[in-house]
Design brief:
Largest sheet: 7 strands, mixed
Order of helices and strands: EHEHEHHEHEHEEH
Helix content: 25-40%
Bound molecules: 5-O-phosphono-beta-D-ribofuranosylamine
Radius of gyration: 16 Å
């Protein structure tokens, strides 16, 4: 059984979707939800789904040996689903090609620090892009720069707003992220 921890900073609708997807799996198990945000809705979701959760602060994340040891001992893969902090080198070194992020645009466009949530979708609208989409990629020391695993695009129409684009992108995320995680872990 391969064990996954999901890192999320906000709503966690992707986290919930991934947890549900693997709930009956005999090969992959979501063992915990980890968040930096006490007010994140993902905490409620984890509670409702009976998944254990941890809230951590910046120094635990960056420096605590206990935190790192927890991951090393309990987790095979780390999934970032709307997680906003840069992953420190000490975690990346212990999880080579084992940390996967989803970005709500077609990288390398619209990536980097500060490019999250509405900022991304508004930039896509402002630049009159004809398409946007999702990028699932391995995580390295730089925001949104690790090797790309999977991309899927969707059309941006003239009457789209950042809200409608976000909605379209979320639908792609729900449809593809769990399957891509599964195929990476099971090397399908
Ligand atoms: C998603 O669009 C994801 O791509 C991005 O943050 C958003 C998180 O949404 N990195 P949710 O918290 O899963 O609802």
């Amino acid at each position: 059984m391969k064990k996954i921890a999901i890192f999320a900073s906000g709503s966690g609708s992707n986290a919930e979707n991934i947890i549900r997807y693997f709930s009956d799996s005999t090969e992959i198990k979501v063992v915990s939800v980890l968040t930096n945000n006490h007010n994140a809705k993902v905490i409620e979701r984890a509670k409702n789904l009976n998944i254990s959760y941890k809230i951590f602060n910046k120094s635990e994340f960056n420096e605590s040996v206990e935190f790192l040891n927890y991951l090393i001992k309990e987790v095979d893969y780390i999934i970032l689903a709307g997680f906003l902090w840069l992953i420190p080198t000490r975690i990346i070194e212990k999880f080579p090609q084992k940390i996967i992020n989803i970005h709500p645009a077609l990288l390398p466009k619209y990536g980097g620090k500060g490019m999250f949530g509405t900022n991304v979708h508004q930039a896509v609208i402002d630049n009159k892009e004809k398409e946007t989409g999702i990028t699932i990629h391995y995580v390295n020391e730089h925001y949104d720069e690790g090797t790309i695993i999977f991309q899927k695009s969707v059309k941006v129409e003239l009457n789209d707003t950042s809200e409608t684009v976000a909605e379209k992108v979320h639908q792609l995320e729900y449809e593809y992220f769990p399957e891509v995680i599964e195929s990476v872990i099971l090397k399908k």
